[in-house]
Every structure is written in C-alpha cells, then in structure tokens.
C-alpha cells in the first residue's frame, strides 16, 4: 500500500531532495511551501508553519488527496543571523517560532492519526549547529537543539503506539546558499570537515529515507549526524 508522506519546506534544497527520495521509494509525497512554485510531480500545499490554522488546512488538503499522513518530515526552517548583543528580540523569537514551533505544530497535527493507526514515522531536520554551536547563530542553534529534546520526548510518548521519532543533523550542504559564500570562507569551512567537502542534498535525503522506512523500525529518539565528521563527539 502506498504511504502518504509530507515534507515541510519541500520545494527547494534539502526539503525537495527528501521529497524526491521518498517519492522514489514509492510514497505519495506532499510538500508545504511558503513562497515560489510547487515542485513538479509532487502535491504542493502553500502553508506558513507559524500559523496553526494554515497547518490544519494544509493537512486537510493532503489527507483528501493522498490519505492520512504516515511519514512526516519537519524540514522547514529560517535563519536570521546576528551577534547576540545586536540581535533583536523579534529575530530571536521568530526563528524559534518557525524552526521549533513549526515542528511542534506539524507533529501535533500528525500524531493523532498515527497513534490511531499504531504506526508512523516522524523525522525532524536539525543541524550540526544545534549540537556544535555557531557564533552569530544563537537563535538558530537554540531552535535546532530544541528539536532534539522535542524528538526524544515524543519518542518516549509515542513508542508504545509504534511511532518512531528521530532527528537528522546535517552539516554544510551544497546548496545555492553555501555556493554564494566567498571562496575563502568556503575553503575555511571545508578545512574543518574531516571528509573535506560539503554534503550533497541527496545524502541527507537518503538518511531520511532510511529512518522513514521499515528498515529503521527499531530506531527511535536517535540523532543521526550527516556532517562529514564536523560535529563528532556531540
């Protein structure tokens, strides 16, 4: 039976790679997006994950089109980098509200159906920064670290219902955003990574695909780094 999957922020970058990977595995895949166009071949649902009413409406659209969500990937996120001394309260709170609050809203909407069916997969996309820290990213790091505590609490709540909750923590990934960094900065970053290169978005996606599959049925509450060794020990 084809499974219904939802990837938030799935219209570009890592989110799109995850959505394509799940589709290749045989899932019916929907993606939420806030701006731009929905990707071809996937069900696109416009949704701002900071708004509970929009999240509920998006889930209803997905449920009508492809059935109750059985695999949820919370990927949508934002950055508003600034040194703490100069960071506005709004820039701190809005990053938490999107990255951590957004995961809360979509997970809350998904879990009741998963609990009723006694099966489900939730994968939260964190970051090496959430474990390692990064100057100028206190808001982003706090939100991404928060996902770990959130996931592990959910793993304990939902384990008896056969719902697994795991975290993937990517390192630096080759995207349009990293490609726009000055070459010197790119070289500095690569020097810190034992494997000496950025990840491809597909490498993150394949890890998510595994965690969302039957092969990972006995993995829950785990944090899987896909960072080329950058954050090891954390």
TrEMBL record:
GO biological process entries: fatty acid elongation
Listed SMART domains: PKS_KR (SM00822)
GO molecular function: oxidoreductase activity, acting on the CH-OH group of donors, NAD or NADP as acceptor
Keywords assigned by UniProt, alphabetized: Oxidoreductase
CDD domains: BKR_SDR_c
InterPro entries referenced in this protein's UniProt entry, alphabetically: KR_dom, NAD(P)-bd_dom_sf, Sc_DH/Rdtase_CS, SDR_fam
Position of the signal peptide: none
Domain Ketoreductase: 3-176
Alphabetical list of Pfam families matching this protein: adh_short_C2
PANTHER family, A to Z: 3-OXOACYL-[ACYL-CARRIER-PROTEIN] REDUCTASE FABG, SHORT-CHAIN DEHYDROGENASES/REDUCTASES FAMILY MEMBER
Stated family: Belongs to the short-chain dehydrogenases/reductases (SDR) family.
Name this protein carries in UniProt: 3-oxoacyl-[acyl-carrier-protein] reductase
């Amino acid at each position: 039976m084809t499974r219904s999957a939802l990837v938030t922020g799935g219209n570009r970058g890592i989110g799109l790679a995850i959505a394509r990977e799940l589709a290749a595995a045989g899932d019916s895949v929907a993606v939420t997006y806030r701006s731009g166009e929905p990707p071809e071949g996937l069900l696109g649902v416009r949704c701002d994950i900071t708004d509970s009413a929009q999240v509920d409406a998006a889930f209803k659209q997905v449920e009508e089109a492809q059935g109750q969500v059985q695999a949820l990937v919370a990927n949508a996120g934002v950055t508003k980098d600034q040194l703490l001394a100069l960071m506005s309260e709004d820039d701190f709170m809005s990053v938490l509200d999107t990255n951590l609050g957004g995961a809360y809203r979509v997970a809350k909407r998904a879990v009741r159906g998963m609990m009723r069916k006694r099966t489900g997969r939730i994968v939260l996309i964190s970051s090496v920064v959430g474990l390692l820290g990064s100057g100028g990213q206190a808001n982003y790091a706090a939100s991404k670290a928060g996902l770990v505590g959130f996931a592990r609490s959910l793993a304990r709540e939902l384990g008896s219902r056969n719902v697994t909750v795991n975290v993937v923590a990517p390192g630096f990934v080759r995207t349009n955003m990293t490609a726009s960094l000055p070459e010197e900065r790119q070289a500095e970053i690569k020097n810190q990574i034992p494997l000496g290169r950025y990840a491809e978005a597909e490498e993150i996606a394949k890890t998510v695909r595994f965690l969302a599959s039957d092969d990972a049925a006995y993995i829950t509450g785990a944090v899987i780094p896909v960072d080329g060794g950058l954050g090891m020990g954390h």
